[in-house]
Amino acid sequence: MRTPFAPGGRHRRQEQLLVECSRQLSAVAEELRRANLIQHHRLLVEQLDRAIDDPTLAAAMSTLRGLTEVKRRQMLFANREYGVLLLTYRVDGCTWDELLSRLRIMCHNDLFAEYWSATLEHRKTLPEESLEAKVGQAVDAILEDLRDDRDEWWVVGLESPPPPPQP
Fold first, then answer.
1. Number of structural domains the chain divides into
2. How confident is the chain (167 residues) per 10-residue block, as mean pLDDT?
3. Range of the domain at 27
4. This prediction's pTM
5. Largest CB tally within 10 Å, which of 7, 58, 62, 158?
């Protein structure tokens, strides 16, 4: 009686194992993607740190024109801090709402607002559907809100754009 049913049970078990193996492989691939993002960002931050410390490297790394040595370093640092926030979101270190909250705080800094304005042309080259373009639109909205009422920058629950789909 058991013999006719055994092969079907074995086949089902093999399918279950294959599905579980596929799920685990996908998880490993996602973890590798995150590790690669972190490694890439670490290399970029090391370059930015060197450029911030050395004016000759800062001039080679910056695409902004007409800046004093001090201002160029400040802009590179603002870029570095923005990149850290973006990476934190990309590797699921914060939610979309937490990212916007941290960006809202950062946007209150006049130097960051200056950096954001100076790099407008850079953001125009981003693909519209990219995460950076979506974050850029959110920062633009935050800065616009700040221009309207600087005393309410900290208000939680301001209408924010929905999160972009994760890659």
1. 1
2. 60 90 93 92 93 91 92 95 95 94 95 96 94 95 85 53 63
3. 8-152
4. 0.77
5. 58
